[in-house]
Amino acid sequence: MRGVAAVVHAAGLAHRTGVDPTAMASANVTAARRVAEIAASRGVPRFVLVSSAAVFGKSRPDPFSESSIVGPDDPYARSKLDGERAVRDALAGSATSLVIIRPCAVVGPGCAGNIPRLIQLIESRWPLPFGRIRNKRSFIDVDDLAALIGRTINAKEVPDILIAAHEQPISTPDLIRALMRGLSRRRALLPVPERVLQAGATAAGKASLWQSFAGSFQADVSLTARTLGYRAPTSVENALQRTAAAIRYNNTAD
């Protein structure tokens, strides 16, 4: 790492069910700490840790910002927060400055999480009873996230924590419509009351999944715009359409 201006640590373990907590801690805490220790020992000027906005929970009634109280509510989110603390401890007292980026859900070709599951549902014959969900969720295009990381590397002064998201959130019904456009599909979103769906999800033991799907999770990204002059240029709708189109193409190619 001699002569390196910055180290970006974006590796980690996510989007897997049934993962042993020890493996999660090893990937998201121990490995991050070790890379930070090496960076500090080599005198790297800046360390950029790509964490996750999941440290704020799965849903929140009001928009959240960098100064909001964290509230991780699953093993993945807790491991990401533990990773942040481990890296901060590893760099304490060194000449290496730390920037933590907490991205909201990242969309783009190859993304994981709820988006591929939604695409499978859209392509199936199952009904889509989501027309009456009223929420706001923040996302960021993968290329916009990469551009933001580049800004944090090159800027002289950077806040120690930044949230990465497009400034305009999207509702779950509009998210599904954007995916349908990317898939060239037209399906109706049935107007089933949200409380009925939530009760069904809770009864099925899927309350946590429901919150990440239908709860609000809106980021306030004004700090990024104010300090770095950066606003994610790719609309969430366009990012979702591109993601769905890429998945459709890959499925056709297979």
Short descriptors:
254 residues, Epimerase_deHydtase, 46% helix, two-stranded parallel ribbon, NAD(P)-bd_dom_sf, alpha/beta, Rossmann fold
Question: What are the SSEs and their pairings?
Answer:
Blueprint: E1 6-9, H1 21-41, E2 46-50, H2 75-91, E3 97-103, E4 105-107, H3 114-123, E5 139-141, H4 142-154, E6 161-164, H5 172-183, H6 194-203, H7 207-214, H8 222-228, H9 236-253
Helix pairs in contact: 1-2, 3-5, 5-9, 6-7
Radius of gyration equals 19 Å
CATH architecture: 3-Layer(aba) Sandwich
CATH class: Alpha Beta
Global morphology: globular
Q: How many DSSP-defined strands?
A: 6
CATH homology superfamily name: NAD(P)-binding Rossmann-like Domain
Question: Span from first to last CA?
Answer: 41 Å
Beta-strand percentage range:
5-15%
Total discrete domains: 1
Helicity, in percent?
40-55%
- The assigned structural class equals alpha/beta
Q: Which segments are poorly predicted (pLDDT under 50) over 5 or more consecutive residues?
A: none
Lateral strand order in the biggest sheet: 1-2-3-6
What is the overall number of helices? 9
What series of H and E elements makes up the topology? EHEHEEHEHEHHHHH
Q: Determine the CATH topology.
A: Rossmann fold
Sheet with the most strands, sense and barrel status? 4 strands, parallel
Q: What average pLDDT do the residues reach?
A: 94
